[in-house]
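In response to a reviewer's request, we include the raw inputs and outputs for one of the modeled complexes. The six entities were modeled together in a single run.
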Amino acid sequence: MDDITVRRRLPAGAKAEQRIRDILRVSREVFAELGYERATTTEIAQRLGISEATVFTYFHGKRELCARVIEDWYDEIIGVVEAGLPRGQSTKAQLEFYVRTHLRLFLIQGTGLCALVLSEGRAKGPGLGEVFVPLQRRYTAPLMDLLARARESGEIRADLPLSLLRSAILGPMEHILWDAIARQREVDIERDIERTARDLVALLWPALLPPDLDTAALREFYGEVGAALRRAGGTLGQP
Amino acid sequence: MDDITVRRRLPAGAKAEQRIRDILRVSREVFAELGYERATTTEIAQRLGISEATVFTYFHGKRELCARVIEDWYDEIIGVVEAGLPRGQSTKAQLEFYVRTHLRLFLIQGTGLCALVLSEGRAKGPGLGEVFVPLQRRYTAPLMDLLARARESGEIRADLPLSLLRSAILGPMEHILWDAIARQREVDIERDIERTARDLVALLWPALLPPDLDTAALREFYGEVGAALRRAGGTLGQP
Amino acid sequence: MDDITVRRRLPAGAKAEQRIRDILRVSREVFAELGYERATTTEIAQRLGISEATVFTYFHGKRELCARVIEDWYDEIIGVVEAGLPRGQSTKAQLEFYVRTHLRLFLIQGTGLCALVLSEGRAKGPGLGEVFVPLQRRYTAPLMDLLARARESGEIRADLPLSLLRSAILGPMEHILWDAIARQREVDIERDIERTARDLVALLWPALLPPDLDTAALREFYGEVGAALRRAGGTLGQP
Amino acid sequence: MDDITVRRRLPAGAKAEQRIRDILRVSREVFAELGYERATTTEIAQRLGISEATVFTYFHGKRELCARVIEDWYDEIIGVVEAGLPRGQSTKAQLEFYVRTHLRLFLIQGTGLCALVLSEGRAKGPGLGEVFVPLQRRYTAPLMDLLARARESGEIRADLPLSLLRSAILGPMEHILWDAIARQREVDIERDIERTARDLVALLWPALLPPDLDTAALREFYGEVGAALRRAGGTLGQP
DNA sequence: CATGAATGAGACTTCATTCAT
DNA sequence: AATGAATGAAGTCTCATTCAT
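The model returned the following structure tokens for the whole complex.
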């Protein structure tokens, strides 16, 4: 549609890349603070101490710029999660990591961006909407994988759609974040995040477990494993 | 402040009330579709087939109009919930009603408005923010009451803050809605809503119950052993 | 020009006249307070507690209304001056009356109208300008007559254009009024007016007198008249 | 207050300064012709053959633009007067210079601006009023100084407030200007100004001198007797 | 490459005025 | 006669975007 118009080639090179990084960094701030519509190219250029025209030298327009900001932000989050997820540990531990990491990343700078995504993701007209779907998919992929594996092994319940489980985890997180923003409490974030993440997983964990396991069966299993452990302990020493 | 100028008296009659209703109805649509900034008074007037000036005859400005739209929408939701909540039935049944009602109201038209509230509620400067706080409180009041009563009677857990429980219920709902919007599947909504509401409560219900510490610990142990076994299985083959 | 458009007939009758008087009274206030452009038909109607449309039932438009307001105001002033001017007394006394009367009429309500005339009288486009010239002439006529008579009798100087003398009297009056408005001192107006009028005439009077009369000749004349008076006094008694 | 939004940095260069001068020049014309309210940014832009937006690139709004126009105009007048006032010469000569200079400056372009100041200086609300008070003071300062010095030396009368003397000089000037505008006679301005200035000072000068009480009283007596004689003459015939 | 400068398009808003009732 | 209701026309102002230098 629009792409009939000829687009000038954007600059490239080491210096150019630094420029681009700077513009993206500041744009992220501005879009996060003000949202897409209220953010202005003027503001971005001014915070950088450069001319507005320069911004347009490196990006084809406000929309593209914003799209890049959001993509980069997603990439960052996805990268941190994929790099740090303690795959060796228990599902619950991985879940806690996931929640904690997200809360931290969002609270530090991401709430505005979160709002940005939420509100711009739905624009009807010539909005940013198209950009989001694949990003959203990549973004939730680690969590979906985690849940899928846990379900295959029977560790978590299989009687409900995975997407519902995902919503039950991401939803509260977002809600908590909005609440935090609304209340402007930015004090003692670190501590709060730790505790909130632990509390939230503690709260949700029972919801994820298979509902049909009988306490009696559990006890029996517990007893048997204990006995096996004790027997092995005679040979191997305490684990 | 600057309002030395006298404002035209608003029309008030049977016809006028119909006009106001019409304008509000269409404005709700437009704001919901486009958000505050992208929505234009021109669009609203055009959809109604009236002059823009007429809109300003009934509302003092875009902001006031939007505020009214949001207030009315909240009022609607609050009204429906308060009127229909089956207080005589079990907590779980009430919760199901609450979830079902919200999903329905939001899906029918409210998602855009939801986005509106979410994104405008945080606007700096002379935004709509001030309007929202009390509305938000009234809006969550029925749920908070429900939870508080259930907690006093020992029916649900008391070891975590109520606000967390609230987030664990409202959050997933919003997330589900966003998901639905993003996917544009508006087919078979009625059936979906019924099932989704039932599923969601089924999912969350165990999370709300007081943690039977024994059972919980057992379940966790069970899960962890299973996981360890699987991990080892990768190396050793099935035992 | 504009008068090609058909004008509806205006209402007439006793009731109608009262209406017209009311509208004119309030319009005068509003125009005086706000000036032509900032005054609105809305404001006028609202202060009267009537509908805007009613104003247009009695006047063809804002412009005509304002023109009537100004005409009536001029008529008032002219009437008061013509009725009260003490023609039997000395020129100086008449001048004092003229100045005092104007200061009072303007200060009580006229300053806004004065501003109105001053600023609207000069509008290039489709302004009110045409209305003013004849009014201005009628308005200054009493003063011009007074000066003309005094000049014919040799009482005041004949070496300068009458229009200059007129400016030397009206100009300071307006300047004093502007000053008073600017300073917002509306305290003790009555007393101030009295004194200011006396002072101003005292100041200007020497300027009006013929400059060439020799003090010596005056003294001689004085002596002769005095002698004549004394002689007559012997027959007639003290005057 | 609401100025959270960042304002575009104003251009600043040689070209920019020329632009600013052009805009100010034309704006002065337009405001002078039409007054603040009737003047439009559209008109200003059109006369310059530029886009309206360009005007707003250099000035933050109509009000600021108008304020600048008036300030510049005051500065011009003040500058010319202060630079040219022949302080070495007689008080009367200085007064003549002052009057002549003002008449010239005002007649050439200033009458509209004079009206602007007069009518906008009194606007309620967030008008231009605040700008004027200090300007007005600087503007009248040279005249006030001149009068004060002359009074100290006993050259002019001390029995009336200085402000009255000032009004007696500035007032007629303004009145003469209004008159000139109203009559649209812009022919032979130079010659007219010279003569009018000389005449006006000739007229007012006696008013400023200390009242030689004897002479003044005599003149008054003379005038009154003459008047009485004339009046009686109407009845009695010439004596 | 960077930018100063300009602008088209469009937003919200006001208000005198008309007309059917 | 009075008015409720509607509106055309116009005004101020913003901002993403372009282009010559």
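As requested, we also summarize the result in words. Residues 5, 8, 40-42, 52-53, 56, 60-62 of chain D lie near DNA strand F (CB under 10 Å from a C1'). Residues 14-208 of chain D form a domain with the Tetracycline Repressor; domain 2 fold (CATH 1.10.357.10).
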